[in-house]
């Protein structure tokens, strides 16, 4: 298993994996290009893939560099331990179901954190899917040192109603909760 910086040759496999894990229309070419761009600063790329010789891309983590992502109504900036100018964003992680439980997620997170620190970030925030199987997303991030800031209802509702996202739990009208969590570096 190799952890490699995301590059454009990985895009098709990342899109397929993202849609498999997170639901139909979760990720497309424009989306992954934008994620990749937002995670690159000072020539350093904070997004990574896990590649298995036999199966290809079995996991990915996209992360946004501090100052290169939109702070929206789902961000509780007054509750953050660092200012927004030093806050990175952990956008997305997906591990193929057959590869889950093998420690790939923590390896991808560690690689992203190392680059984000080099870029000048002091912490990263994420909105984690609380309805993931067994609430695995929140458990994984907590085990990695993340702390809950706030829970948000209907975080992905607009994506499902207006942008074609199909939640694997709710279908075309997503009412899942998001755990806004921060990981300090």
UniProtKB/TrEMBL annotation:
InterPro entries per the UniProt record, alphabetical: Acyl_CoA_acyltransferase, GNAT_dom
SUPFAM superfamilies given in the database record: Acyl-CoA N-acyltransferases (Nat)
Entry keyword annotation includes Transferase: yes
Statement: the UniProt record of this protein carries the keyword Transferase: yes
Top-rank taxon: Bacteria
Keywords: Transferase
GO MF annotation terms: acyltransferase activity, transferring groups other than amino-acyl groups
Domain N-acetyltransferase: 1-168
UniProt name for this protein: Acetyltransferase
Species in which this protein is naturally found: Pseudoalteromonas rubra
């Amino acid at each position: 298993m190799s952890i490699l910086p995301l590059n454009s040759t990985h895009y098709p496999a990342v899109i397929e994996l993202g849609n498999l894990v997170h639901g139909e229309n979760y990720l497309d070419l424009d989306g992954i290009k934008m994620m990749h761009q937002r995670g690159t600063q000072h020539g350093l790329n904070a997004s990574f893939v896990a590649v298995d010789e036999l199966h290809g891309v079995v996991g990915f983590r996209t992360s946004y560099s501090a100052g290169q992502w939109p702070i929206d109504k789902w961000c509780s900036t007054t509750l953050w331990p660092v200012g927004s100018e030093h806050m990175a964003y952990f956008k997305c992680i997906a591990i193929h179901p057959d590869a889950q439980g093998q420690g790939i997620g923590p390896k991808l997170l560690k690689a992203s954190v190392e680059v984000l620190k080099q870029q000048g970030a002091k912490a990263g925030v994420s909105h984690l899917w609380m309805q993931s199987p067994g609430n695995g997303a929140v458990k994984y991030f907590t085990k990695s040192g993340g702390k809950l800031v706030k829970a948000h209802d209907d975080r992905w509702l607009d994506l499902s109603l207006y942008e074609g996202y199909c939640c694997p739990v709710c279908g075309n009208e997503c009412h899942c909760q998001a755990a806004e969590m921060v990981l300090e570096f």
